[in-house]
Specification:
The complex is a heterodimer of chains A (about 800) and B (about 350). In chain A, about 25% of the residues lie in helices and about 30% in strands. Chain A is built from 22 helices and 39 strands. In chain A, the strands form 10 sheets. In chain A, strands 27-30-31-35-34-33-32 form a 7-stranded mixed β-sheet, sandwiched between helices. In chain A, strands 11, 13, 14, 21, 22 and 23 form a 6-stranded mixed β-sheet that branches. Chain A is elongated, with a radius of gyration of 42 Å. The two termini of chain B are about 85 Å apart. Classes of the chains: A alpha+beta (about 800), B alpha+beta (about 350).
Chain lengths: ~800, ~350
């Protein structure tokens, strides 16, 4: 909402600076976004009259103009085409300055002397959007004669400060000068000055000339019509044009400008119909029929939904109520008689119609927020007063005012002690009453209670708590003492799950992995890119009805696709090394069960490329599991997972459950993402992991007796898994086997083709005594023996 | 004999002091003091001395031995430290050569920012509550007193799964879920992902992060809201921070406020960072609307409370000087390594 300050002062006394006003208004709830100074930086621009226009001898597109600026007549060369002799125009004299930085010098244009410049509105920083159509690309033509040679700033109110307020959606009553004046008066405690509305009228009466029928009583609560005869359409006076422009509305002609002016004053949208096109001199407010369409004044034929509130005459539709008029009945330069409409339309119906037509207008945006039906007559009268004052036409006596059920002021009861207890204040009844009175809310005291009368324009004041806010904001939030919440002390903290998430992230960070965060949605095609299109669970996406695009149209069922997008992006950007992880949710549809919400499950993915191989990834996974105290898991060879290399992939298994999968990415998947280097990816079911985590560690005494270490190297067939060897070591190591470690794998010249050499270091220790060589030998030999029998292993020399 | 000893001593002294290695010193020791050394040799001749001469010469011989021994010790010690010095010098390396890289990862800057916020509120007795990203229209809007025609419900603003389900546009539905389950006193924060139908640009992404807080108890006031959030702002942004509460409007709180903090770059003088105003918009807050309490089965006559919510992405961007929100979700390793 743009509020020109000088204009505002017509409705309320303001004796503080605009800066202070802005600050105080912000603190009472009308947030000031910016204050713009209009008309700053204009120097040496005076009123001139064009006396003669002659062609330029050397240039087709220029003319030579003789301009009378009072004491003398100047010769000015201009390219403007919208001027004519006798026009009054602003003239920038030699030495003049314009806000765009231009300094005017005497000079020659194509050989002809030019002693100044004719000024356009654009050149004095008036926004293009509010420059009248005929002056958009030309000189500013003044509306009437002004004293020649007078400084333009003295004859036209150009200088103005405009405050832009950011208003909240609950306060449609503030969308007007008077509404803002009320807020100012309440905020700074000054006097409101409502305009004095008086219409003289001619003898002929509106209600003899026009009839109004409301058939759609749901859509229209009140309809006021006034008739104006002998209308003379012309530009409106300069002061009105300036005010409209400063408030962001382009001046058009006197009638349209007056309706807009009154809309800005009172917030009430008005509409003028050319009475000659209103058949039967009758306005009927009724619902549209099925399949009806209507051509609005912007020339577009619009299909209407059934039951749209329409303004009609006895034969046809004239306007879509509260949204836009029709082409036919629009006021033109030929219009002689006008029917002026000031009505209250149902906000919800306007909103739905505006939405279904995708047509929002200044009027519709006001009606849909909710106006005050009690202001409709006043606004119509105010417009008629201005029509008389500006001699635009003859206003007929009286109005046709159809208002079957008058909206009365609501009475509410509020409890002062309740207000204080919510605010933490000790305001007296008297303080509260004063604040409410400032807001034009009448208060009577009834025992311990305040009975308030709510003005009909304050549609936001519904219950006690709404008055708590009114009192708080006018009293001043900054005057309320800051205290710490009393009451029961509750211990803060994180849940176990949250703590484990933190530990997981920190452990992975410590192993050199960065945390990544990606969108919760993916492209449904991503499931094909990771070759899981046959996976019934993963391909059953929870899909958005209105996604931004295919790329973000389905909730992810796996964290892998987004991880791979990130890895591909890094790889394409020549980032040499990637080590990342994401701990986030996947979304599993529950199908058609009665459960509405999908399952949201925490998953963990890890991705790497660069100086890495499968075992780096495996080391990270094992490091994490160790940190989380997860033991007794096993690896199983996985050669059917479509996302991974069939020879380089495994599942992490815990009992009957698969905790996760890790492996090298399948070359086809790499292709699908345009990644050329080998990628290693692990995916873990974090929900399952959460159940296996053991963080309640107990101290085990450090060993007191020495350990004995024995190494061995065996030769086995190439396809024997290390896991099989380790199983034998574990099963036969007995209680004295403390640990074992693989330290060498060899394939090559010294070993027969198809075989490999595997070397282990085994550590034996007894908890309560020093071990004897004999005991160790027995166990060690047993292990080697079993390996020989079960795996055909031979000791390597 | 005494002369012999003195000559021996002089010779030994000369040899020891001019020695240039441990080996030479050792040779000198053997030569003079060894079992077959010169001093032993001389002492062997003591038997031919008279009983008067013997103690005298014996004393001299002992003095000579001690002198040579002392000298040797000193020379050896000097030599040892000289040798060490030489060795250390030889071992000198170019310490300006690069270190061997140990890899260290970082949490995402959003997580880091969030951790900081969580810790502040945990310190004030808050617990952390979580809720689903896919929400019902009821929890996201209806229960939070959003009017049935509120524009935020439009498909141009909110992502819909179907008529009943949406992607939550705020983390406030978690508050409703908590209030339904827990009896007051309640003191929670709910951080998490939110979604709005915004085309990505430098300041918008369809997914972003919020942190909301809720306090419900008997006798909670607007003053308490101010106090709690002032402590938060000063802890998060520094103790000089000033805080301004401006009246505002939200459907689920009444009275409502927006909170500005004095700019932590210019401390309120006005800079590029705060667009010249000296203030930075920090969060929205208010006293929980009685309709919302009622919707959650809490009697507004018995209990009151406040709620607040802030955009984490924006705060993190302000904090680190990140000028494009999309960078947060691109996850370029070179970006992530900076935090």
């Amino acid at each position: 909402m743009l509020v020109p300050v000088k204009w505002l002062k017509e409705y309320v006394d303001i004796d503080i600076s605009t800066k202070e006003l802005s600050d105080r208004m912000t603190m009472s709830g009308s947030n000031v976004e910016v204050v713009e100074k209009i008309g700053e930086g204009i120097e040496g621009v005076v009123v001139g009259k064009i006396e003669k226009i002659e062609p330029h001898p050397n240039a087709d597109k220029l003319v030579i103009v003789a301009v009378n600026v009072g004491e003398k007549t100047l010769q000015i060369v201009t390219g403007a085409t919208n001027i004519k002799e006798e026009d009054y125009v602003p003239v920038a004299l030699e030495g003049a300055k314009l806000p765009n930085g231009l300094k005017i010098k005497k000079g020659k244009l194509r050989g002809e002397v030019s002693e100044g410049m004719l000024v356009s509105q654009d050149e004095i920083n008036i926004p293009k959007a509010v420059i009248p159509e005929d002056m958009k690309d030309g000189i500013w033509i003044l509306d009437k004669p002004y004293p020649l040679g007078k400084n333009i700033l003295e004859v036209i109110e150009l200088e103005e400060e405009v405050i832009e307020f950011e208003l909240t959606s609950n306060r449609p009553d503030c969308l007007s000068m008077i509404g803002m004046a009320r807020e100012v008066a309440a905020t700074i405690g000054s006097q409101l000055k409502y305009p004095k509305v008086e219409v003289k009228g001619i003898e002929e009466r509106s209600n003899e000339y026009a009839k109004v029928l409301i058939e759609d009583v749901e859509g229209c609560v009140r309809y006021v019509a006034r008739v104006i005869k002998d209308v003379h359409i012309a530009p409106s006076p300069q002061w009105m044009q300036r005010r409209l422009a400063n408030a962001g509305i382009r001046p058009i002609n006197n009638i349209v400008d007056i309706t807009n002016y009154v809309m800005l004053e009172y917030g009430q949208p008005l509409h003028a119909f050319d009475m000659d096109y209103v058949e039967g001199n009758t306005v009927i407010v009724k619902k549209s029929e099925e399949g009806e369409s209507f051509k609005t004044l912007d020339g577009i034929e619009r299909k209407l939904k059934k039951d749209t509130t329409m303004i009609c005459d006895t034969n046809k539709a004239l306007a879509i109520a509260g949204i836009m008029g029709g082409e036919e009945s629009e006021v033109t330069s030929k219009t002689k008689t006008i029917l002026l409409e000031s009505a209250y339309f149902n906000p919800e119906k306007i909103r739905l119609t505006s939405k279904s037509l995708a047509l929002r207008t200044e009027a519709s945006s006001r009606f849909e927020k909710g106006m005050d039906p009690n202001v409709a007559r006043l606004a119509a009268d105010r417009a008629c007063q201005l029509i008389e004052e500006l001699a635009v036409g003859k206003v007929l006596e009286g109005a046709v005012d159809v208002y079957p059920v008058k909206k009365e002021m609501d009475k509410k009861t509020i409890r002062p002690n309740r207000i204080n207890s919510l605010l933490g204040t000790n305001l007296t009844n008297q303080q509260m009453i004063e604040i409410l009175n400032k807001l034009e809310i009448a208060v009577t005291v009834q025992d311990d209670l305040l009975v308030v009368e709510v003005p009909t324009y304050r549609i936001d004041l519904e219950q006690e708590v709404d008055f708590v806010e009114e009192i708080a904001r006018i009293y001043g939030y900054d005057r309320i003492d800051a205290t710490m919440a009393r009451g029961n002390i509750v211990a803060g903290g994180k849940t176990n799950g949250q703590i484990i998430e933190d530990i997981t992230k920190e452990a992975l960070n410590a192993m050199g992995l960065n945390e990544i965060l990606t969108y919760s949605f993916v492209s449904p095609r991503s499931i094909e890119k990771i070759k899981l299109e046959k996976n019934i669970i993963k391909k059953n996406f929870v899909k958005l009805l209105n996604p931004l695009g295919d790329e973000t149209s389905a909730m992810r069922t796996s964290l892998i696709p987004n991880l791979l997008e990130v890895m591909a992006r890094n790889s394409n950007r020549k980032v040499e090394e990637f080590r990342g992880f994401e701990l986030g949710r996947i979304f599993i549809s529950k199908g058609d069960t009665s459960e509405k919400l999908p399952q949201e499950l925490l998953n963990l993915v890890i991705g790497m490329y660069g100086e890495e191989d499968f075992y780096t990834l495996k080391g990270v996974v094992e490091g994490l599991l160790t940190r989380l105290g997860v033991e007794d898991y096993e690896y199983e060879v996985e050669n059917h997972h479509p996302t991974f290399h069939p020879g380089r992939c495994g599942n992490i298994v815990y009992g009957d459950h698969t905790l996760g999968t890790l492996g090298e990415l399948h070359p086809e998947v790499m292709d699908n993402y345009g990644i050329s280097q080998k990628c290693y990816v692990a995916e873990l079911d974090f929900e399952l992991l959460l159940q296996l985590i053991r963080l309640d560690n107990m101290y085990t005494p450090l060993p007191k007796y020495p350990a004995i270490t024995r190494d061995f190297a065996v030769i086995v067939k190439e396809n024997v898994l290390v896991k099989e060897i380790e199983k034998i070591i574990k099963n036969h190591g007995g209680s004295i086997l403390e640990s074992y470690k693989l330290f060498d794998v060899y394939k090559g010249n010294q070993i027969q083709e198809g075989y490999k050499s595997i070397a282990y270091a085994l550590t034996y220790r007894h908890k309560e005594r020093t071990l004897q060589d004999k005991e160790v030998n027995k166990v060690h030999e047993k292990i080697l023996d079993v390996m020989k029998q079960e795996l055909g292993a031979t000791l390597r020399d | 004999m005494e002369n012999k000893l003195r000559t021996l001593k002089e010779n030994a002294e000369l040899e020891i002091t001019s020695a240039d290695s441990m080996e030479v010193l050792e040779k000198a020791r053997v030569k003079y003091l060894g079992k077959k050394g010169e001093l032993t040799e001389i002492l062997r001749g003591m038997g031919s001395l008279s009983s008067e001469e013997r103690p005298i010469i014996g004393k001299v011989a002992n003095e000579v031995r001690e002198a040579i021994e002392t000298l040797l010790e000193e020379a050896k010690s000097t030599m040892k430290s000289k040798v060490l010095q030489q060795q250390l010098k030889k071992e000198t390396i170019d310490i300006t050569m690069p270190g061997k890289k140990e890899k260290i990862g970082k949490k995402h800057p959003l997580t880091q920012g969030l951790d900081e916020l969580k810790n502040i509120f945990i310190g004030m007795g808050f617990k952390i509550a979580e809720g689903p990203e896919v929400e019902t229209v009821y929890y996201n809007f209806d229960a939070l007193n959003a009017a049935p025609n509120h524009p935020s419900r439009d498909m141009t603003d909110t992502f819909y799964i179907n008529e009943e389900l949406i992607l939550r546009t705020q983390t406030s539905p978690v508050q409703v879920r908590v209030m339904e389950k827990m009896k007051p006193p309640i003191r929670i924060i709910s951080p998490g992902r939110c979604f709005r139908n915004d085309t990505p640009d430098a300041t918008h992404t369809p997914m972003f992060h919020q942190l909301e807080g809720l306090v419900i108890d008997k006798g909670i006031t607007l003053g308490d809201l101010k106090g709690t959030l002032e402590v938060f702002a000063k802890t998060f942004l520094g103790s000089h921070t000033e805080v301004k509460f401006r009246p505002h409007h939200f459907p689920f709180t009444e009275p409502s406020a927006e909170v500005d903090a004095s700019c932590f770059k210019c401390e309120g003088d006005g800079c590029n960072f705060c667009k010249g105003s000296g203030w930075i918009e920090l969060l929205g807050c208010g006293m929980v609307h009685p309709n919302v309490l009622r919707n959650c089965g809490i009697d507004p006559e018995e209990y009151s409370g406040f709620a607040f919510g802030m955009g984490i992405d924006r705060l993190v961007m302000l904090k680190y000087g990140i000028d494009d929100i999309r960078l947060l979700f691109e996850n370029d390793m070179r970006f992530l390594n900076q935090f």
